[in-house]
Design goal:
By secondary structure, this protein is α/β, with parallel strands linked by helices. β3, α4 and β4 form a beta-alpha-beta unit. The strands form two sheets. Strands 7-6-5-8-9 form a five-stranded parallel beta sheet. Strands 2-1-3-4 form a four-stranded parallel beta sheet, with helices on both faces. The chain is built from 13 helices and nine strands. The protein is globular.
């Protein structure tokens, strides 16, 4: 039977089967080929989508906007100051209003509960552009990038370095378990993912012939890795006071040349961006002045190396988001 996810919400990968994720990846590949060949694909002309952003973003906003316009749709962007959602109007009421005007709603913000509530009342597909708990659109881009480099997903060894209980650590663990990659979270114990989510991931992994591991050892985490992945140490919305504690916890988990040498010779480096690999940002410069470190979660050497596929990964946000929008609206 053909895969059909028309009318579905896209809130977290836990809601999707391996077969459905495979369908979205294959669809994204087709859209990428058409985009690069200059083949028009305005399959959703006459439809309109709205993007609700409580957290700013470069890749998520641009990916949804370009994807929508490539598909022939109208796209409305609402920042926190352009909507009454949660202030003068409840989430449920906002969802019901927007659902009458738009064919799909994207939400990027803090609360997973909020995006779930939007989906409950909207009556149209709702897509999670990021919450504090999950980042499912990034996952498809990451899986597509890995497959482009290795020709497969199943059986590869994937290691995530850093705060493993944030939205990226949570989501990557589930994505790997769903698609048969061996996942390792390499982090201090206090930054391991929530135990209940780890158990869920291990149950899923067992069904797909892979495993989920947690380790505090950098050497153990990097050994035999096909993919080394990291993310910024302090997430958007966390207070500045967290930086000192987080730096002290995670500085030994920086992905640098020594870490990459422990992985396989064919290993790739991945990062969802933005990255603090130098001092060419306001925050990077402030951290360098305050704490004396010029590179944080990844060294500039690794970020700019031939093993780094971070900009392929960023581009793939557009193609995979296009697949999600099309598949849920067509």
């Amino acid at each position: 039977m053909a895969t059909n996810i028309r009318g579905r919400n896209y809130l977290k990968l836990l809601d999707y089967s391996s077969k459905e994720i495979r369908y979205l990846l294959d669809l994204a590949k087709n859209f990428k080929d058409m985009k690069r060949a200059g083949i028009p694909h305005k399959y959703l002309e006459g439809k309109n989508i709205v993007l609700l952003f409580e957290k700013t973003s470069t890749r998520t906003r641009c990916s949804f906007e370009v994807a929508g316009m490539d598909l022939g749709m109208g796209v409305t962007y609402l920042d926190p100051g352009s909507s009454q959602m949660g202030k003068k109007e409840s989430i449920a009421d906002t969802a019901r209003v927007l659902g009458r005007m738009y064919d799909g709603i994207e939400y990027r913000g803090f609360s997973q509960e909020l995006v779930e509530q939007l989906a409950k009342y909207a009556g149209v597909p709702v897509w999670n552009g990021l919450t504090d708990q999950f980042h499912p659109t990034q996952m498809l881009a990451d899986l597509l990038t890995i497959e482009e480099n290795f020709g497969r997903l199943k059986g590869l060894n994937f290691t995530y370095f850093g705060d493993a209980r944030n939205n990226m650590g949570n989501s990557l663990m589930i994505a790997c378990a769903k698609m048969g990659l061996n996942f390792t979270a390499c982090a201090p114990k206090e930054l391991f993912p929530e135990e209940s989510l780890v158990e869920t991931a291990r149950e899923i992994a067992a069904e797909n012939g892979c495993e989920v591991r947690l380790t505090e050892s950098v050497e153990e985490g990097a050994a035999s890795a096909d993919v080394i992945y990291t993310d910024i140490w302090v997430s958007m919305g966390e207070p500045d006071e967290v930086w000192e504690t987080r730096i002290n916890l995670l500085k030994k988990y920086q992905v640098n040349a020594d870490v990459m040498k422990m992985a396989k010779d064919t290993a790739i480096f991945m990062h969802c961006l933005p990255s603090f690999h130098d001092t060419n940002t306001t925050i990077g410069a402030q951290i360098a002045e305050k704490f004396g470190i010029n590179e944080m979660e990844v060294s500039d050497e690794v970020f700019e190396s031939k093993q780094s596929v971070v900009f392929d990964e960023a581009e793939n946000r557009m193609h995979t988001i296009k697949a999600v929008v099309y598949a849920t609206l067509c």
